[in-house]
Amino acid sequence: TQLRHPSTIRVFEHGETDDGRPYMVMELLTGESLADRMERGSISEMEALQVARQVAESLSEAHEHGVFHRDLKPDNIFIETVGVSKVVKVLDFGIAGGVDATRLTQAGEVFGTPQYMSPEQCNGLPLDHRTDIYSLGCILYEMIEGRPPFSAETPMATMLKHVRSKVPAPRRAGTETARVMLMSLRKDRSKRIQTAGRFAELIGHCIGALRALKEGRGPDS
Fold first, then answer.
1. How many angstroms separate the CA atoms of 7 and 189, rounded?
2. Is 0.85 topped by the overall pTM?
């Protein structure tokens, strides 16, 4: 499937060389990964929301084509500099799959990065698009709180926390952003935000509420 959203890295060509080695030709990006951006220092709530909304919009198009990422993490999100603008790109859909791709989603198989894996992924259950929503929730939490929601000394201990532990309360627990963040991190995927498009819409509401607050007016005024 050719994904065309501006926040999804473009793949121009792929195939095999004459000696059988696979290759992929992608657009050249200038900027830094989200992981590198977080290493440089704290991220404002507004910046975090703007990054997360672009990722959610990219995922929404992919999910509509039956493709989900399964390894969404800060290393796979790139912040491209285009003039004076910042454009977010989602990378590495190479291991992505869809509703009919079972090689990496059969029960008992686990693939992903522990800090960003959904509870169902940690349990080796078959996955659907809602695993990406949880992963993006983890990333949004980390951007705002300065740490991922769950982390431990070993990958297995981290995965167990995703399955069993309550999400640590955000520092600004009563905000619209905190509410949306916690909705995306519900362990029961049927109670999670159900689509990436809806996630993007809710993040847009958070951006509007934050702008209203900064301008000294109520969110509904």
1. 25
2. yes
Q: Which run of H or of E encompasses 189?
A: none
Tell me phi and psi for residue 20, to 5 degrees.
Answer: 90, 5
Q: What is the mean pLDDT of residues 165-177?
A: 92
| Mean pLDDT, residues 38-47 taken together | 92
Question: How do 11-16 and 77-82 pair as beta strands?
Answer: unpaired
Token couple for 47: 């910046």
AA identity, residue 75: D
Active-site amino acid positions: 71
Among the ranges given (45-49, 78-82, 99-103, 169-173), the one the predictor scored with the smallest mean pLDDT: 99-103
d(CA 161, CA 126): 19
Contacts of 92 (CB under 8 A, 6+ apart): 69, 71, 76
Quick check: helix, strand or coil at residue 128?
Answer: coil
Three-state SS string across 29-96, please? CCEEEHHHHHHHCCCCHHHHHHHHHHHHHHHHHHHHCCCECCCCCHHHEEEEEECCEEEEEECCHHHC
The strand pair at 22-26 and 85-90 is best described as unpaired
Residue where the block lists tokens 């297995």 = 156
